[in-house]
Amino acid sequence: MKAPAIAPCLGVKDTGASVGFYEKLGFTAQPAGDDPNDDIRLLLFGGEFALMVYRDAHLRDWLPVLKDSAPGAFGMFYLAVDDFDAYVAKIRPLVNAVKESDHDGRRLFYFTDPDGYIIGVVQKQEW
């Protein structure tokens, strides 16, 4: 698997709960390293790297500059899917939808994860 140019690593309250949430949405999880005491997980979507999740306490220990940061983010992440309609229909009952929109001819579906991160679903496209 090729690593992306930028790899998001989200601080989460409970790594197991976050992994469980994302697995319900079609992601797969795997350990990010060999240390059994480290709970960082890689999340794949469609077999490709999507993001990492890491317990907030461990992330604060790793980067003390984050010690006062709350989980969640000001901003959003986008998830590009092969079939927008089918994927949104599948996850709609599993998520807290916060907005649906059409913008520049593209349909968008936004939801929050258990830690307040906003994910926007979009149809996969070439740039």
TrEMBL record:
Residue stretches spanning the membrane? none
Question: Domain VOC, which positions?
Answer: 3-124
* One Pfam family matching this protein: Glyoxalase
The GO terms describing molecular function are: dioxygenase activity; lyase activity
Keyword annotations for this protein, in alphabetical order, are: Dioxygenase, Lyase, Oxidoreductase
Domain of life (superkingdom): Bacteria
Annotated protein name in UniProt: Catechol 2,3-dioxygenase-like lactoylglutathione lyase family enzyme
Which lineage do the record's taxonomy fields give for this organism? Bacteria, Bacillati, Actinomycetota, Actinomycetes, Kitasatosporales
